[in-house]
Write a structure and sequence with these properties.
The complex is a heterodimer of chains A (504) and B (355).
Chain A (H helix, E strand, L loop, with lengths): L1 E10 L2 E11 L4 E5 L6 H8 L7 E6 L2 E3 L4 H6 L2 E4 L11 H6 L12 H14 L15 H14 L4 E5 L7 H16 L3 E6 L2 H7 L2 E6 L2 E7 L5 H9 L17 E11 L5 E11 L3 E5 L6 H9 L7 E7 L2 E2 L5 H7 L1 E4 L3 H5 L6 H4 L11 E2 L5 E2 L1 H14 L16 H13 L5 E5 L7 H16 L3 E5 L3 H7 L2 E6 L2 E6 L6 H10 L3
Parallel strand pairs in A: 3-8, 3-9, 6-7, 7-8, 13-20, 13-21, 16-19, 19-20
Antiparallel strand pairs in A: 1-2, 1-4, 4-5, 9-10, 11-12, 11-14, 14-15, 17-18, 21-22
Helix pairs in contact in A: 13-14, 14-15
Chain B lengths: L1 H27 L3 H13 L3 H25 L7 H18 L5 H30 L3 H24 L36 H19 L1 H11 L1 H6 L4 H17 L1 H10 L10 H11 L4 H24 L6 H20 L8 H6 L1
The chains are: A alpha/beta (504), B mainly alpha (355).
């Protein structure tokens, strides 16, 4: 159906695709896997006309085609669903689907015909989407199905899905895979870009593995396994399981009792939550995104004003419910925020300046009379230490944070927070958008911090990560703790039910 | 490479402006070469040209710095005009009220009055934004009208010399005068109003640089401007930074009063500002929000103002409006670039529209 031949694409000095060959057979589900920056999205964006290749050919159904814009791609039957949905929230499903291809004349918009077309497509693939619903009222899973419909409505025969499961709960992933299989069985071709190996093995027929802009392996899914794929992706043997010794928890560090949190808009987000984190243990919080994890962590780190919090937060016996972020950090509470671009980094600042965020007002970042002047050599020393200890690449403190890959940005943040020698670490989505090599590194650092006697509260949307790392696992659902499970004994089904229903 | 780009784009903008201005001149019926020779030549003649060019540049350095400090905190201070009016009047008021004090006491007092009055007037929209979230652009614009009306009223009804047909206050005390540079520089006559405030402006450039890039306070202001959420995460009070940046910005704008009242007219003269506050926005933009850039941009605008007077007088058809055309085109080019790329894209209209 689709073939990329010898595709090369450069962005400045960076070669994103270097002679890439990908062949997708008609009526199959083809996975493209690779670490961040391996060039998998770039290759598919070229096929979709988002970028034009510097050299190489694109063949559709065996004929060479020129695809310069997404319009060309759509006309040839190629559709793409992006990682971040491109939907207009206040508008209806039907309005969103016809957007850009509105039926009717210049002054009229005929949605009835579109509506029935959408309904029949929805029934054909069992998508269960109501064309008259507004987008804002839909769950993330439903919104994703709207994106699928958008492509199908434009008669796509080949669908490219970029990291489609990142936003879904385990149950939703199952449903979604069922839809994909149905689509394949009815003759559609699907390309799925992902870095989750378990999903590759569960859904795909063929796999293309990419690394550093090149294709390093093409295998049949039935003839491979996770270890082999991981080795191809990273280029060396990878520990897929986290090796960690038994936790030896000591006294309580963080004590949360009956804490409720209102969001900035005043709506309740966390509802009477109570738990404890002890020194030397990792307590995980699993849950579908948007169930209060963000607000809980921001309340604990002091980013949500005390007036929005009720209940009591105690740190080593001291009531800290009303303390601001700076005071909490001074007490020994470090925080790795979930969104490194929004919270964690000053992207236009250099690495040295980023390495002191939060401690910029005290020694060694400042010196002189009244500790007003920044101590450039002290800052540089600290930055170099973080860069060295956490293997931040490229190791140049004068580079702006923007220039780093996601994994290296994350290592910089984690290094900065670890360098505080915290007694409590609040860490959200530590490996989101981070490649496998860095994930392994970050996980081992988290375990090492735990073993050094730090209390760790971990929030992650990656079930595998949170079950593998945690010593105890809490599941959050609609702002409440739905239950606690033993991560060594639990199953994905058990967690999934607690995450989606709030009970077993 | 970065430095190269920082310098290259403003330079292209300026050259393009002169090119387009030349087309205008040609269309109007004069020779661009003659006109530009007149413009540049009159601005760089010694002593009058250079003296006046630097004098005209002085208030623009202050307002340019004022706008850039706010910019660096992610704020658009359109109120430098109002801040400098309030400050100039306050300076004159202190200079008149305490006229009997000796220069040793009075001089620091009047300088402080300029900075404080501008700072307070600038802090008001800062407080409004920090406390109630009301947008600083609206509030600074509104406060401009309030400021102009207020100082006009006080001048007209309370501090005018009786019988004086001009709307200006009585003169300030002798001790509040700052010397003109002609007193120190041989060949520069004292009738040229270039005064010590120009030196203050140069010092202000250096201080602003040190403040923003070498102190923890500057770090906090820049962090807030670069990413308020991350600043908050770093334990920085965004509200405090907004108020602080606006106060510093207003204080810098207020220093125009030192040049105007203490070094030039020795009294408050109503309506003295030739849109210094607004031109300051252009200066900051062209100067890429860096003190060195602001200094260079202010000097360029000083050249244009000075040269414009001669273009007006000594060409057949072209008027000094040519200067406005040049300024306008420079801004257009700089703004077009800043809107779409570069570290200041966040001040672009596209981003603004989302707020």
């Amino acid at each position: 159906m689709l073939e990329l031949r010898n595709i090369t694409k450069r962005f400045g000095d960076v070669v994103a695709n270097d002679g890439v060959n990908i062949k997708v057979a008609s009526g199959t589900i083809h996975a493209i896997v690779g670490e961040n920056g391996a060039g998998k999205s770039t290759a598919m964006r070229i096929a979709y006309g988002f970028y034009t290749a510097d050299s190489g050919e694109i063949l559709i159904d065996g004929t060479e085609r020129s695809i310069k814009t997404p319009h060309d791609a759509i006309a040839l039957g190629v559709g793409m669903v992006h990682q971040h949905f491109m939907l207009v929230e206040p508008m209806t499903v039907a309005e969103n689907i016809v957007l850009g291809a509105e039926p009717g004349g210049a002054l009229s918009l005929d949605l009835n015909q579109a509506g029935s077309e959408i309904r029949s497509l929805s029934e054909e693939f069992k998508l269960a989407v109501n064309p008259n619903a507004t987008i804002e009222g839909l769950s993330v899973g439903q919104q994703q199905r709207v994106e699928l419909l958008k492509a199908l409505y434009r008669h796509a025969r080949l669908l490219v899905l970029d990291e489609p499961t990142a936003v879904l709960s385990p149950q939703e992933v199952e449903e979604f895979f069922a839809i994909l299989r149905r689509m394949r069985d009815q003759g559609k071709t699907i390309v799925i870009i992902t870095h989750k190996l378990s999903e590759v093995l569960a859904i795909s027929d063929d796999v293309t593995v990419m690394r550093d802009g090149r294709v390093v392996g093409v295998v049949k899914t039935s003839e491979t396994n996770a270890a082999q794929l991981a080795k191809l992706m990273v280029g060396r043997e990878v520990l897929l399981r986290i090796e960690k010794p038994e936790a030896k928890p000591a006294g309580p560090v963080l004590n949360v009792s009956d804490v409720s949190v209102k969001g900035r808009d005043g709506t309740p987000r966390v509802d009477k939550v109570s738990f404890e984190v002890r020194a030397g243990e990792i307590v995980g919080i699993a849950g579908i995104e948007g169930n209060g994890q963000t607000e809980l962590i921001e309340a604990l780190s002091g980013l949500i004003p005390g007036s929005h919090i009720s209940g009591k937060v105690r740190f080593l016996g001291q009531d800290i419910t009303r303390l601001d972020a700076r005071r909490r950090k001074e007490l020994g509470i470090a925080h790795v925020p979930e969104d490194r671009h929004r919270r964690g980094l000053l992207l236009d600042f250099d690495l040295a300046e980023n390495s002191i965020l939060g401690v910029h007002y005290r020694k060694p970042a400042v010196h002189g009379f009244g500790s007003v002047m920044l101590n450039q050599s002290g800052i540089l020393k600290r930055a170099e230490q973080v860069i060295r200890d956490f293997d931040v690449r490229p190791p140049n403190p004068a580079l702006p944070a923007r220039a780093l890959s996601g994994g290296n940005q994350q290592k910089l943040i984690i290094g900065r927070e670890f360098d505080l020698n915290p007694k409590l670490l609040l860490v959200s989505q530590p490996t989101r958008g981070v490649d496998i090599g860095a994930i392994e590194f970050i996980h081992s650092k988290l375990v090492a911090l735990r073993d050094a006697g730090c209390a760790v509260l971990l929030v992650s949307a990656e079930l595998e990560e949170v079950t593998a790392l945690s010593d105890r696992l809490l599941i959050i659902h609609q702002g409440k703790i739905a239950g606690e499970v033993d991560p060594r004994k639990t199953s994905v089904e058990e967690i999934g039910l607690l995450m989606t229903r709030g009970h077993l | 490479m970065k430095l190269f780009r920082e310098i290259l784009f403003p330079l292209i903008a300026v050259l393009a402006a002169f090119l387009i201005g030349g087309i205008f001149v040609l269309a109007i019926g004069d020779s661009p070469i003659v006109t530009y020779r007149l413009l540049i030549g009159s601005a760089f003649s010694w002593p009058d040209g250079i003296g006046y060019t630097l004098f005209y540049a002085t208030p623009l350095i202050f307002t340019g710095l004022a706008v850039m400090v706010a910019f660096r905190c992610g704020l658009l201070n359109i109120g430098a005009e109002g801040q400098l009016y309030v400050a100039a009047f306050a300076t004159a008021w202190v200079g008149i009220t305490f006229a009997h004090l000796s220069a040793w006491i009075l001089l620091p007092l009047v300088c402080l009055a300029a900075i404080l009055a501008g700072g307070v007037w600038g802090a008001i929209p800062g407080v409004l934004k920090a406390r109630f979230g009301s947008h600083e652009v609206i509030n600074t614009i509104m406060l401009n009208f309030v400021a102009v009306a207020l100082v006009s009223y006080f001048t007209q009804y309370h501090y005018k010399t009786p019988g004086d047909p001009i709307l200006q206050t009585t003169v300030i005390g002798q001790g509040a005068h700052i010397p003109r540079l002609g007193r120190f520089i041989p060949g520069l006559p004292e009738r040229i109003p270039l005064n010590l405030a120009f030196i203050f402006a140069l010092i202000a450039c250096a201080l602003v640089y040190v403040f923003l890039w070498k102190t923890k306070w500057g770090y906090e202001i820049r962090a807030t401007g670069a990413n308020p959420s991350a600043a908050e995460y770093g334990g920085i009070s965004v509200r405090k930074q907004i108020i602080l940046a606006m106060a510093v910005s207003g204080g810098l704008a207020g220093m125009v009063g030192i040049n105007e009242v203490l070094g030039y007219r020795y009294r408050y003269y109503d309506g003295f500002s030739a849109n210094y506050g607004f031109t300051g926005i252009a200066v900051a933009l062209l100067g890429r929000n860096h003190p060195v850039g602001v200094l260079l941009a202010a000097l360029l605008f000083g050249v244009l103002i000075r040269g414009g007077i001669f273009v007006d007088a000594f060409t057949n058809h072209v008027s000094k409006d040519l200067v406005d055309v040049l300024q306008g085109v420079v801004i257009l080019f700089v703004a077009a670039e800043a809107l779409f790329r570069g570290p200041f894209s966040r001040f672009g209209l596209l981003k603004r529209a989302k707020v």
